[in-house]
Amino acid sequence: MFGKILFIGENIAHVANNANAAQIADLMNIHVIFEAQNQRILGEVEEVNNDIIKIRFLGEYVDGKYISGVIRKPSLSSQIRIINNDELMELVGKYDDTTFQIGQSSIYKQYTVCAKINALFANHLAIFGNTGSGKSCGVARIIQNIFANPNLISTNANIFIFDAYGEYKTAFTKLNEYNPNYSYKFITTNPTDPDDFTLRLPFHLLNLDDLSLLLQASSHSQIPIIERTLRLAKIFSQDNAKVEPYKNHLIAKALIAVLYSNNTTAQKKNQVFQIIEACNTPDFNFDAVIPGLGYTRSFSECFEIDSNGYFGESVLITDYILKHINDDLEATIVPEDPFYNIKDFASALDFTLISEGFQDNKQLYDDSMLLKVRLNAIINSKIYDIFSCDNYITAPNFIANLVAKNGRKSQIVNINLEDIDDTYAKVIVKIFARLFFEFAKTREERASIPFHLFLEEAHRYIQKDSDTFLIGYNIFDRIAKEGRKYGVLLNIISQRPVELSDTVISQCSNFFIFKMTHPLDIDYIEKMLPNISSDIIEKQKSLQPGNCVAFGSAFKIPMIIKLEMPSPAPNSSSCNVNARWKYQA
Length: 585
Prior knowledge:
By secondary structure, the protein is of the alpha/beta class. The chain folds into 3 domains: 2-91, Elongation Factor Tu (Ef-tu), domain 3, CATH 2.40.30; 122-202 and 393-545, P-loop containing nucleotide triphosphate hydrolases (Rossmann fold); 208-383, no CATH class. 35% of the residues lie in helices and 20% in strands. The radius of gyration is 33 Å and the shape is elongated.
């Protein structure tokens, strides 16, 4: 079959073709061994013609172990043979408590490809493919195979699927059939089944960076506004007896600034009433009683304009306002564990708007009003329900509740985001990612609780955003660079890799590439992935649905793998137009 080695180039051997017609048909992509004394070089047949077989060098076997890469080329006298069973098993892996089955080798159909769990899931993973290439089914099958392994009971797994279109709801409903200790939890904004859980994300767990993204801050001048609002919201969460004097102080300072301004009396009255309408307390409201010497006036009556164009009770109201100013209150300590909701935050934003320096600064005021409009839009939409929470909860307890289901731990948590607009869905996923990352960083034993985040349609979330410009970092970039050592791992699934963050892709160690045809995406992954070759690119172009090219640190060599259909399957099939068009009698 294989004749003499005619020529050895940089990484390819040209071998005389002694195969007959029947043998030639089975030669493409098979692996061969160049064997000489103390040397076994692995090669792959990549081109066959009538006279010459071109074989590309892949690596070398040393003491029975495969090592990728070739330093010393085979000699011209090396014998060439088909790879044997032991050598092939070294490549495809063995099934035990450290591995799991991925699928069947497309070339060696009687062999199952098994990957080391640590090699595949202790690093970031990327899964790319066109719509209809079998990407969603492949992901479901991979996760099912993890828990189907009888050699390893993975009760401590924490797999979070951020499901863009609700495709995976049914895929893991039979998880406990693998083992009764397994549990699957489905979280959604629109529960339809008794077993569904409502998506909740306590507003008080959001930090300054989260709020900046949620309110779509677009300039650095808006960050101090949000920061002050956050501080006031936390202070206002305390006992009312401590809060009222501080609120009165803020209102009084704003009113004095108006009264001492150069505006006309009518303008001052309008501004005062705007402040009281937005921010009021028992001491500062339109009906508050202002005591004088032998008489009283309501707050609104004090601002009646007399015939001379002045406030008739200017002295009375000024004295009353000045009594409530206490600059020592500016040093009020922010509580450590405050509980407040989104409406409390909106109220705090109103107090920020009347604060000194905002009313007279048009740019700051405009920036503040923009944030207020966006915050009110959230309050008046279904997004408000997501951030609703009745009681205080810490971040660790929230994460613990997230995986809890009927008193048991869920190994797979599916968070369905199909009813949420992309703008808010991206922020919600970022908030979850930040909570997981910060939780993991606080563990006394590093990486003791790994989190695997599967991001379906990842191009919706992991984008080339302005986060770095605005808040100094992008949470996905940070996790991509640092998450591995803390046990927070990204598993990105996308049909448009060209839209993803370059930083995240560059940190992925393993790849499953299903069929891709768009030239921009193909060109992008060829340039971005350090260990992808033109051969892999060519292979993925002709893949059948459900087949993928797998390569990276978990694989000895790039492999074409056929994944079985998951059972149950995700709801990712195309619309059956023929059946829907057909007349129903």
